[in-house]
Design a protein that fits this description.
Length: about 575
Amino acid sequence: MNATFENNLLLDRLPKHLKQFIKPQDYNNYTPINQAVWRYVMRKNVAYLSQVAHRSYLEGLQKTGIEVDTIPSMYGMNRILTEIGWAAVAVDGFIPPNAFMEFQAYNVLVIASDIRQLEHIEYTPAPDIIHEGAGHAPIIANPEYAEYLRRFGQIGCKAISSSKDYEMYEAIRLLSIVKEAEGTPQATIDAAEKAVEDLQNNMGELSEMAQIRNLHWWTVEYGLIGTIKNPKIYGAGLLSSIAESAYCMTEKVTKIPYDITAAYQNFDITKLQPQLYVTPSFAYLNLILEEFANKMALRTGGLSGIEKLLNSAALGTIELSTGLQISGVFSKVIAHQGNPIYVQTTGKTALAYREKELVGHGALTHPDGFGSPIGKLRGINLAIEDMSPKDLEAYSILESETVKLEFEGGITVEGQIVTGSRNLPGEIVLIRFKNCTVTHGETVLFQPEWGVYDMAVGKKVVSAFSGPADASSLDWITPLPLSSTIKAQPTAERDDLEVLYQSVRSIRNAKDTTACLVIIFEDLKQNHPKDWLLMVEIAELLNDRQDVVFLSEVLAHLEQLKTNRPEIAHLITGGLELIFNNNTNA
């Protein structure tokens, strides 16, 4: 079965720059060992998390069609998620934070379709289908939490990054890949860890994206809910880690009341978290999100917002008080008394109103950048956007008139007006000139030889945010990651072990009544003496069959394995507890 990301109309709404991250989920790539890893983790999770997770977790498993015994297909998930207003897509590991959050804004759950290797069954720093499918998906069945996730994505994707944020993303992505990959030399892991550490120590002031990424980590990924003394788990990172979900409930982890200061608490994806934040309710998460959003350039605009875009050196947008939106890479701002009086972009630029590109004002019209004054005219209290037709006539701001507009701060625009454009409320948002010269003191900002001049109208900058106003503008394509996940390489030994795992799986599913557990057991002991998970599965089948004699032999072997491999002794114990305590509904 080749499961794809079909069967959910929400996916049709996704813009092109997000669709590039989607990859098909080839279900045939999941091996019998992969299925066994999924089953073990899910059985452990359902048994333990039923006691410590928010009640939405178990309810969500049923609502989202997540099965305990079988890795979910994206096709099946999308069919079921449609009923709760969401969709899911498969991606390759970590994707850029702004893209990840924008998917959420479209009610689309991003799922890394790879699955952790057996050696990392308790925890992997790389996102995988256990983390995403078994961690994120069940909780979004809670409508209040799902709205928080959507709203977080809507706001988070507008957060402005610093020029170092993308370097950090690539470094963390690479580290997660090499730590999860089989047989990575320790020197490679050490180098990747050092690269992340060096960047963390030299990030400077945290950008908006870095801060909101922290909020995402301490809520969506590693959040607790309830009270400090009696918290419950809802964060996907905890729900998908059989080690950390238990560890986080101990006194070794400091529990902190969740508030906006979490935005300044960084995290390390490679280590157990030393502290976690506890929210009293899902509704409270939205209160903190709005508190943070009120401080973002998205809502404050102004000179500081433009400066954040300048520092990001990436595509961004400012919105003027008229609603006109300028999207491009901002390269210059001229300020006067703490206010921006002129902005300049470089390269392809587009103008929009209410997130829709203005006809005739896309990249074809503005291929080399766009510059415009901002603010009021000198000595006139009435801004151009607030002028009535009589006011405009009084100041000769009319078609075919040659005018000299002197703005506060020293920007002068002199030329012949060709036409003007108005927004829906009737305010002038754009004035086109010919034979136009724009100056700031002795500095020429635009001259007649460059063609027509389009001047944006707005007395102030009310918003600044990452990305274009209209997602279809500027052929905006977020750069794809530089690194790719490393797949486990097949070997004769592994292939033989996969056959044994499949045989046991077929026996459990009653698809193979001829396979002999004794032969599988002897093959496993002789040719794969370090494997423990299949031994546990054999013990489970023997217990179901009430084959006491054979079961005692298998248990003796498992006890010997615990002695020979003490690092996995607790995993064997955990698996046997599932069998003999019968405290799971798997």
